[in-house]
Write a structure and sequence with these properties.
Elements: H1 3-24, E1 40-42, E2 79-83, E3 87-92, E4 102-107, H2 116-119, E5 131-136, E6 141-142, E7 151-155, E8 159-166, E9 169-179, E10 182-191, E11 197-208, E12 218-222, E13 227-231, E14 240-252, E15 256-274, E16 279-285, E17 289-291, E18 296-307, H3 310-314, H4 337-357, H5 360-374, H6 376-391, H7 393-402, H8 407-421, H9 430-448, H10 471-486, H11 493-511, H12 516-539
Length: 551
């Protein structure tokens, strides 16, 4: 098998492996605990955590008839909506420590309105999020009743404040929408005891599991060094716990994120299943702090809840994020930094095109044309090299037949032939290798661009979902078959037939269930390649179909 055939098969297999990787999302095993001074994962609950925060089943329960520290009757249950032009959070004063301060999340933008992603982007169902638990470390128990209703202090379109006193401590929780998808959450504790209050504040976010292989739901914990993530399969046997300085964490789906950022780094992060495994909960805990008698302390947190739009994540400024950026919540795929750097450029270019075209489908088509034009010199060089290889192919076959039993002499004679002809056997492959990072970057960008969610084009109802009629996958297979027949044949007939048959079938199978936006790009790219090959063959005086010789 020639070097060129091996390279093409390697690239095809790489695409197949990349697709399988994106679909199945294999996760590395949780590493063993690191030394005490390093950030590490373990399965030992931090002090004061055991029994303090039971898993929530997600079912609504009526508030328990408790009283506060002064024996006053419980507050009435209240529900309110806080939000911006893009986001609405349905908040409540009851069950903040059990179900959460936020009962439901809705997205108001025109893109998501009227779709399931607009009414429940995190698949919370009847479970809440933004659970707030204050633990009394001395008593090793929750400081405030988890299910009791708080007193409503303030409720406006942008701000909701509740308070409760219990056991000589008054807690005030304020949720404020700052704009877009971000806001601020503060927890103020006033110690009215005559003894110091040692405490930890724990905040939790949730996301529902998904049956889709292409919409993996994760818990996120960003350490000083890297972003640690875990999906349902990672926490099926045991929770994932990370200790150390954690700037931010939360929960995410493919296109949406619910993130919490501490004004001071969190001390630990736990990702675990809740509600009989139907949801994944990420809990972030502050370090243990002490409030002297008669004093107070305010914990300030920033939050981001909504679509994972690159610029909005980068511009998050409610609280300092430190050295870690929220944009790392966007998963750029297998090639990591390479796909990310090129993908950002291609995403901005796609947005720029859409700004004056108004259609995301047409924007993908034009982006494909532009990328094809930029890489055209490399493609022309590749085609020229393949044509020269085809011209000397009879001599190559003679040398292989003559020295079939002497591989060393065969290699020497082939090198001499290449030298005389001015042809390098890898010259046709090098331009292809240079283009591979661009292909992978486009692949990753089109899989992660939230701008394409719910965007229709022609017969396609959503560019982020599979083609319901499989027109694109079948078109890709047919176009690739035609392209392979038109390319100059630099291999023996058995290899040529294999390439003409296996590659189209393989790519058709790969593309069956991938997002339509990606299929649109690949089909357009292949069609452009077919047109280019036909024009170049005719201009060079060659046949319009290189496979005609062996048909």
């Amino acid at each position: 098998m020639s070097m060129q055939v091996r390279l093409i098969l390697t690239i095809a297999l790489s695409l197949a492996i990349l697709t399988a990787y994106s679909a199945l999302r294999p996760r590395p095993p949780v590493p063993s605990p690191a030394p005490a001074d390093a950030t590490a994962k373990d399965t030992t609950p931090p002090a004061g955590e055991t029994g303090a925060e039971e898993a929530d089943t997600g079912a609504k329960a009526p508030p328990a008839p408790t009283t506060d520290g002064s024996g006053s009757p419980p507050a009435a249950t209240d529900r309110h909506e806080v939000g911006t032009d893009l986001l609405a959070l349905e908040v409540t004063n009851a069950g903040i420590g059990r179900r959460g301060l936020v009962e439901a999340v809705r997205l108001r933008s025109e893109q998501f309105s009227g779709h399931p992603t607009g009414t429940d982007p995190f698949d919370l169902g009847d479970a809440g999020t933004f659970r707030v638990v204050v633990t009394d470390e001395a008593a090793e128990a929750p400081l405030l009743d988890k299910q009791a209703a708080y007193e409503v202090v303030e409720r406006t379109e942008r701000r909701y404040v509740v308070a409760r006193e219990q056991g000589g401590v008054r807690a005030t929780i304020a949720l404020e929408a700052a704009g877009g998808y971000e806001g601020r959450l503060t927890v103020t504790l006033e110690n009215r005891r005559n003894t110091p209050l040692e405490h930890v504040v724990a905040l939790s976010t949730r996301v529902g599991k998904s049956d889709s292989r292409y919409d993996v739901r994760r818990g996120l914990c960003h350490t000083d060094d890297d972003l640690e993530d875990a999906d349902a399969s990672d926490v099926e046997d045991a929770p994932v716990r990370i200790r150390g300085a954690i700037p931010w964490g939360g929960s995410d789906a493919k296109y949406f994120a619910s993130l919490l950022v501490g004004a001071r780094p969190f001390a630990s992060c736990t990702i675990e299943p809740v509600g009989e495994g139907e949801r994944i909960e990420t809990t972030l805990r502050t370090e243990k702090l002490t409030v002297p008698p008669g004093d107070r302390i305010t914990h300030t947190f920033g939050w981001y809840v909504g679509a994972k739009e690159l610029e909005r994540l980068q511009a998050f400024s409610v609280v300092p994020v430190g050295g870690a950026s929220l944009e790392e919540a966007i998963d750029w795929g297998y090639l990591g930094a390479i796909s990310e750097s090129l993908g950002k450029v291609l995403l901005r270019l796609l947005r720029w095109i859409h700004g004056w075209m108004g259609s995301w489908g047409l924007s993908i088509l034009l982006l494909t044309v532009l990328v094809k034009a930029v890489t055209l010199p490399l493609t022309l060089k590749q085609m020229a090299s393949m044509r020269r290889m085809k011209e000397i192919q009879p001599e190559i076959n003679k040398i292989k037949e003559k020295y079939a039993d002497d591989r060393v002499r065969q290699g020497q004679e082939l090198q001499a032939l290449f030298s005389r002809s001015g042809v390098h056997p890898l010259a046709g492959c090098l331009p292809m290798l240079i283009q591979v990072p661009v292909w992978f970057a486009l692949y990753s960008m089109l899989l992660t661009a939230v701008e394409l969610v719910h965007q229709p084009f022609l017969w396609l109802p959503d560019l982020t979902q599979q083609d319901p009629f499989f027109v694109l996958p079948l078109g890709i297979g047919a176009a690739m078959y035609l392209q392979n027949r038109m390319m100059p044949n630099t291999m023996d007939e058995a290899q040529a037939k294999m390439m003409r048959t296996i590659m189209p079938v393989m790519f058709t199978a790969i593309m069956l269930f991938l997002p339509a936006g990606l299929g649109l790009y690949i089909l357009t790219n292949i069609v452009l390649s077919v047109i280019q090959t036909a024009v170049q063959m005719r201009a060079g005086g060659g046949p319009t179909a290189a496979a005609a010789e062996g048909a």
